[in-house]
Amino acid sequence: MTVLVISGTGTGVGKTVVTAAIAALAKADGRRVAVLKPAQTGVTDGEPGDLDEVRRLAGEVTTRELRRYPDPLSPEAAARRSGIAPVTPAEAASAAAELDAEHDLVLVEGAGGLLVRFDPGGGTLADVAWSLGSLLLVVAEAGLGTLNATALTAEVATRRGLNVGGVLIGSWPAEPDLAARSNLEDLPVAAGAPLLGALSAGAGQAGSEEFLAEARRGLSPWFGGEFDPECFAKGESAQK
User: Fold this and answer.
1) What are residue 222's DSSP bridge partners?
2) In this structure, are residues 91 and 99 in contact, taking their beta carbons and an 8 Å threshold?
């Protein structure tokens, strides 16, 4: 049984696509997969959320959303404005543990960055990961500015007793600039953990079969993929 907690360095870095890619490979390998989204913000009842996107890309995996808030804010702020009860780290960890009892892999996808607040008590995704004793995966951007955000995320994770398993690039551009190519070498240093994948920009627009192939190309053998960071970096450098 395995629980992985997936955090971004911020909003819009590709957490959901990375989560779906990991789920797709595990499902293709015959594993029982569950994806937990403790707090979905910016989506009203009846509208598709992140878990709908995961199912579209990865296929029929178990999904569970604990709370949904209509405003596109942090979970704490969205809960406060809506009058809906906030999610607590204990509630999220308990839900993950329940799913873990019946699945081979449980993926917990955060909202925004690692320290975005869930509740008025200051609970965060970091607290969820600590409660579960889970590896933390950090999803980062490819280009300029990503090193600082990644280093800050990894440093606070380590200070809170978390184990950063690796960093993944959620959206690798079709025409990477100098900063992006250089970051292939520098991101693992910033994260203090290996580069475990880089998914092509637009991967989330693919159909399920094409997406599975993209996941296999873009994720490390640690997830069942074929991504080799050294070969990938050499290939990108050769195209500059």
Assistant:
1) none
2) no
Q: What angle do CA 122, 15, 65 make, to 5 degrees?
A: 65
Active site residue 15: no
Instruction: Give the global pTM.
Output: 0.96
Which of 15, 27, 37, 240 is catalytic? The answer is 37
> CB neighbours (10 Å) of residue 237?
13
26, 129, 165, 192 from 189: Cα distances, Å: 27, 22, 13, 5
Per-residue pLDDT of the chain (240 residues; tens, 9 = 90+): 599 999 999 999 999 999 999 999 999 999 999 999 999 999 998 899 999 999 999 999 999 999 999 999 999 999 999 999 999 999 999 999 999 999 999 999 999 899 999 999 999 999 999 999 999 999 999 999 999 999 999 999 999 999 999 999 999 999 999 999 999 999 999 999 999 999 999 998 999 899 999 999 999 999 999 999 999 988 777 665
CA 102, 108, 225, 152 dihedral sign is negative
* Partners of 37 in beta bridges: 65
* φ, ψ for residue 8, nearest 5 deg: -100, 165
181: amino acid identity, one letter: R
| Count of other CB atoms within 10 angstroms of residue 153 | 26
Residue 219 DSSP class: B
Beta bridge partners of 105: 2, 33
Tokens representing residue 128 in the block: 């969820």
Helices (H), the chain: 15-28, 50-58, 75-82, 89-100, 125-132, 146-159, 178-191, 208-218, 229-238
